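Suppose a colleague, Dr. K., hands you the sequence of a protein chain of 296 amino acids and asks what its three-dimensional shape might be. Before reaching for any lab equipment, you can write down a predicted structure in token form. Begin with the sequence itself:
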Amino acid sequence: YKIIEKQGRYKAVDAAKAAREDGADIVVGVVQTDMENDRALIRSHAFDVILSDAEYVQALNGAGYVEELDPADYALDDYFPEFQQFPGNWQDGKLFSLVTRFGFLGVAYNTDALTEAEAANYNVFWDPKLTGKVGHFDWHLPNLGQMSLLNGNAIPYDIDEAAWTAVKEKTMTLRSQIGGFFDYGGTFSSLNDGQMLAFCGIGDWITGVLEKSGAKVKSVIPEQGGLQWSECFSIGKGSTKADLAKKWIQYITSAKGQAKSAQMAAYPALIPNQKGWEVLQAENPDEAKRQGMTKD
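The predicted structure, expressed as tokens, is then:
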């Protein structure tokens, strides 16, 4: 069956390898797409499993593109309590998606240029020593969301016109600090080679990959707060392979599937299954510690 997902998120090799290793009767085909084409592809009912952020699940459900899920089919009791009723997965007491991975966006920084304490505040982007060395991930939502948090908006995307004007004005004051706007690959390379010393709009999902390869970069959630991203699986409306789709979601949300998901080659992520934390601690204690998925 086919999975539709956002560009660069899941890797077919990761998914298929995980399924084969655990004896799952699943053949995985991944179609990577951009958001402009997502809606047309989903409307075609060509996909059995849909991977998206929780916020998009609400839109997909509202448009009638996803099937209702039976909570009894999944190991929700193994999830940490705050993820058992994860916002966006449920609508009017009915389940339409399951969160499988998540993370936070904050300040990404070069550890030779900044200490963690310095990076733990969005105001660091205006530090004179970073002039021309601050990068923007080329997606406006996280970048502007961080500016909104810095301006004191506790719910960064739910603001009035005056607050939005203030966010735009604050963002423009950063202009002299900016060294460029970078796509996925450019973000990696510019951090890795020190072209950029700090980055807006990203987190450990990028710096973790580089850090594990020896690069001197990290991410921190600033004192003003971070932005959470999530990956959630739904079954496409009218899927003719709904049983196989359910098997895939059952596997990837199980403890073993979750531990593998946390270590995906595409990029690391936190997982909501607490038993998955235990498996990760046993299989790869260094990565569990690096991501903070320990009992300490």
